């Protein structure tokens, strides 16, 4: 499943540059994660890098976008082949 950023986000700017898929961007008030681009870093790293660097622990799994490891890896392969 992809991740999402809760309203506890303090806009510290550390998560966006860590995302290898470019899934994180500044929203209207806080950073947001595009579920179509989020692979939880599957294919790139062992753990989601945004979660690793977040100082307020506000990036949980998104219950509205449930995906298995295999689905995340398949999405990673599509993104890499598309040049994202």
TrEMBL record:
Keyword 4Fe-4S: yes
MF annotations from Gene Ontology: 4 iron, 4 sulfur cluster binding; metal ion binding
Database matches in InterPro entries: 4Fe4S_Fe-S-bd, 4Fe4S_Fe_S_CS, PSI_iron-sulfur_center, YfhL-like
UniProt cross-references to PROSITE patterns, sorted A to Z: 4FE4S_FER_1, 4FE4S_FER_2
Pfam families hit by this protein: Fer4_7
Sorted UniProt keywords: 4Fe-4S, Electron transport, Iron, Iron-sulfur, Metal-binding, Repeat, Transport
Domain of life: Bacteria
A Gene Ontology term for the protein's cellular component: cytoplasm
Protein name: 4Fe-4S ferredoxin, iron-sulfur binding protein
SUPFAM superfamilies: 4Fe-4S ferredoxins
